[in-house]
Design a protein that fits this description.
GO molecular function: acyltransferase activity, transferring groups other than amino-acyl groups
Helix content: 25-40%
CATH superfamily: Gcn5-related N-acetyltransferase (GNAT)
Strand content: 35-45%
Pfam families: Acetyltransf_3
Order of helices and strands: EEHHHEEEHEHEEH
CATH architecture: 3-Layer(aba) Sandwich
Protein name: GNAT family N-acetyltransferase
Strand order of the largest sheet: 1-2-3-4-5-6-8-7
Distance between the termini: 22 Å
Structural class: alpha+beta
Shape: globular
CATH class: Alpha Beta
Organism: Anaerosalibacter massiliensis
CATH topology: Aminopeptidase
Largest sheet: 8 strands, mixed
InterPro entries: Acyl_CoA_acyltransferase (IPR016181), GNAT_dom (IPR000182)
Number of strands: 8
């Protein structure tokens, strides 16, 4: 289990499927995501079984420490040991938890895991160009914009541009005085 003062991340289990389905199908939540909507519990169960067996990814559920309430998700995709990098993703599914600093904590925990436990050299993230809140979370964590992928993905009925942002282990170490 990975933790901070207010939250912890644990690997996603079957019991978490209803939460993930509800979050992804929520129009307020999925406005910043790139999923095929709607998703079902059966499809999510099939995805989870495949994902859990895939060593190139780690999928976590984010819970509040005070009451074990699941509030979101996050993890690492395409963990590439040879090139020492991975893509990071995250989301807060419970809208009453938005704007309370949990995204910053999730980002911090995932980076510590990637750099200190997995020994990766680079963590990157794709962010919708218009998702200013996520861009700010990444920048506060030390991410820099590597570039813009213009009209990169067809989502929500339109072609959307994404930024690719990353942080190197050396930048993480310097920022955190390690």
């Amino acid at each position: 289990m990975l933790k901070s003062d207010r939250i912890y991340l644990r690997l996603m289990e079957e019991r978490d499927i209803p939460f993930k389905v509800r979050w992804i199908n929520d129009s307020d939540v999925n406005a910043t995501l790139n999923f095929d909507y709607p998703i079902s519990e059966i499809g999510t169960r099939n995805w989870l079984n495949k994902a859990a067996a895939n060593s190139s990814r780690k999928d976590f559920i984010v819970c509040l420490r005070e009451n074990d309430r699941p509030i979101g998700y996050g993890g690492l995709l395409d963990i590439d040991i040879k090139n020492s990098k991975a893509e990071s993703y995250m989301g807060i599914g419970e809208t009453d938890c938005w704007g309370k600093g949990y995204a910053r904590e999730i980002r911090t925990i995932i980076l510590e895991y990637a750099f200190m436990q997995l020994g990766l050299n680079k963590v990157y993230s794709y962010v919708w160009e218009e998702n200013k809140k996520m861009i700010k979370v990444n920048e506060r964590a030390g991410f820099k914009v590597d570039g813009k992928l213009r009209e990169d993905v067809f989502s929500h009925g339109e072609y959307r541009s994404r930024l690719i942002m990353s942080i190197l282990k050396s930048e993480y170490m310097k920022k955190n005085n390690i």
